[in-house]
Design goal:
By secondary structure, the chain is an all-alpha fold. It contains 3 helices and no strands.
Length: about 100
């Protein structure tokens, strides 16, 4: 059976105004010239990276809160000496160290 090539999905883009200082605008223009990129590309890239970083941070906070709630509810924990021993084994053995 022949493979049929399909066009990649294109995400629709919208225009969103952002107020920035003249200094920031000038910095974007200068950096854009150095990188041979438009200021629009730089701003879009910066927003994407910021969102990825902050979404990851917020996800970690939610996971941490869930872990805390599980600890409060169950009292289950790993004593510090046991964790230190596991970490030392992990350093020495790599991925093969058995979790406590």
């Amino acid at each position: 059976m022949a493979h049929i090539k399909t066009k990649p999905q294109i995400t629709p883009q919208i225009t969103q105004g952002v107020k920035i200082s003249a200094e920031t605008r000038d910095r974007l223009k200068t950096l854009g010239q150095y990188k041979d990129r438009s200021t629009h590309w730089l701003m879009s890239k910066a927003v994407e990276e910021y969102l990825e970083r902050e979404e990851r941070y917020e996800q970690e906070k939610r996971e941490d809160m869930q872990r805390w709630e599980n600890y409060v509810a169950s009292g289950a924990h790993i004593p510090q000496p046991e964790m230190e021993s596991w970490m030392q084994d992990k350093i020495e053995q790599g991925k093969d160290a058995v979790k406590p």
